[in-house]
Structures are given as C-alpha cells and as structure tokens.
Amino acid sequence: ATLESALHGAVRGGELHLLYQPLEDRHGRWHSAEALLRWRSPVYGNVTPDQFLPLAERSGLSLPLGEWTLTQACAQLATLPGLRLAVNVSARQLADPGLPALVQRAVQQAGLEPARLSLEVREDVVARAPERSRQALTALRETGVRLTLDDFGGSHTHLEGLQRLPVHAVKLDRTLVQGLDRGTRGGALVAAVVHLARALDLEVMAKGVETQAQQAQLREIGVHNLQGFLISAPLDLPALQARLGVAE
Ligand code: G
Ligand code: G
Ligand code: NA
Ligand code: MN
C-alpha cells in the first residue's frame, strides 16, 4: 500500500488524533490551546503533518481530514470548560463554500459558544487569493467563531489588504520570534509588526517561544499571549485536562 492509500484508511480507522498546545496569558495562565493533528500509522509509524497534509491536499483528502479535525476538536473542547481552542484551516478548506456550515454544525453539536473556537488561516494562503479569502473569512465570521491570521509577518504581508480582512487576531510568525535572539534589530522588527497589528485593532499572539529571553522581550513589547516549548509542548487531551485540573 502507498502512503496515500494508508491515509485514506487513517481517516476512517481511528489512526488520527489531536494534540493540544496551550497559550499562556499575561498572568501565565493557560487560556487557550491550538489543536495539532497527528497520524500514527501501524505501517509507517508517526507521520508528521508536514508529510501528510501536502499529500492530503493532492489526493482530495483535505476536506475529510478537516471535517474530522473540526468535529473532534469541538467535541473535546466541550470537556475543557473555560478554555478557548484554535483549529488550523488549510487553503483547500478555506476555498470550500461548505466550510461555514460545517463549522456551525460542529459548534452546535458540541454545544459550544462559537467564540470559544478560533480558526487559524496562514497569511501566505490569504496572500495567494486575497479577494476570495476575504469573502470566505467574511462568511466564516458570521458563524460567530474567531479568526486568526497565522504566521503573520513571515512572508507576504499585504498591508492594503490587511485592513479589509475580517480577522480578530494575528499570530506572529516563528521567524520573527527567532529574530529576537539577533539583537536590537530583531526587537525593532517585532515591535513594528505589533504596532501595525494594534493600529488595525488586531489581537497579537506569538508562537515558537522557546526561551525566557524571548518571553521577556515579547512581554516588554506588549505581547502576552504566548505559545511555544517554553510554555509547553503539545499535549494529549488527558495531559491537558490534568494540567487544567478538570476531570475527564
Ligand atoms: O503539529 P506540527 O507543529 O508538527 O505542525 C506542522 C504544521 O502542520 C504546522 O504548520 C501546523 O500549523 C500544521 N497543522 C497541524 N495540525 C493541522 C490541522 O489540523 N490542519 C491544518 N491545515 N494544518 C495543521
Ligand atoms: O506553525 P505552527 O504553529 O502551526 O506549527 C506548529 C508546529 O511547531 C508543531 O509541530 C509543534 O510541535 C511545533 N512547535 C511548537 N512549539 C514550538 C517551539 O517553541 N519551537 C519550535 N521550533 N517548534 C514548535
Ligand atoms: Na500550529
Ligand atoms: Mn496554527
């Protein structure tokens, strides 16, 4: 069997699961988490999203995978009182006119307040089709979920289009956070990007935070919603529940 046919089976056969990577707030509390898809294949072992998501896009599995992820993430979020959850949405999913209805169904079936869910769309995905993306995001926003531009400032920030984009938040690209280690220029760049986002009334988060020095610099710049190995690696659901002090 090929990796592709194995992936078909994985969606049906219970080989997929979600890990959750928390974000801390300004008080160091875990207020939200991001769902990260994992595939444990009996044949191929652990296959990373970087390997199987491009394959899924090519083989028409993007939508079934995305539907599984949204449904599962919402069901599990219902066991995590008070927490917010982010789910990544692929280019193919964003282009699917059925996405808003799917999101609405997943949220309703789980009995969730829609604003507890946020959808993350990568900036380069939006940059490739700005007008179509703006329309898709506008339809998604009507469901009441929150919207985040992921990997912000990493590649093609389109300043004129940004102000018309109906997103609530941006998540700074990992390379910006890594740039903090390269002295004052890195800090100045992050401060400028954050200033830009704030001018547009966008909430700012950062990912890939690995060191206390990065955390301190981000806090100094005024970015308090932080994600990365310093705060926590991605956790399975029982580990997250244990850390949050909720019973299963
Ligand atoms: O989980 P990990 O850090 O290995 O993620 C690798 C890449 O896969 C990241 O860019 C992440 O955003 C993406 N990714 C993880 N889970 C999902 C998912 O459920 N859907 C989509 N579209 N991307 C995901
Ligand atoms: O780009 P995105 O955030 O969607 O990708 C998440 C991926 O990055 C996951 O595979 C996750 O395991 C990994 N990751 C999470 N935190 C860190 C971090 O602090 N540093 C690095 N290098 N990778 C991280
Ligand atoms: Na991610
Ligand atoms: Mn993300």
3D architecture notes:
The structure is a single chain. 46% of the residues lie in helices and 21% in strands. It has a domain at 63-232: EAL domain (TIM Barrel). The protein is built from 12 helices and 9 strands. It is globular. The N and C termini lie far apart (37 Å). With 248 residues, the chain is α/β, with parallel strands linked by helices. α3 (62-77) packs parallel to α5 (99-109). A hairpin with a 3-residue loop joins β2 (30-41) and β3. It has helices at residues 3-12, 49-58, 62-77, 91-94, 99-109, 123-128, 130-141, 159-162, 174-179, 184-199, 212-221, 237-244, and strands at 16-24, 30-41, 45-47, 84-88, 117-122, 146-152, 169-172, 203-206, 225-226. Strands 1, 2, 3, 4, 5, 6, 7, 8 and 9 form a 9-stranded mixed β-sheet that branches. The structure holds guanosine-5'-monophosphate (G) (2 copies), sodium ion and manganese (II) ion. Residues 36-37, 48-50, 53, 69, 88-90 line the site of one guanosine-5'-monophosphate.
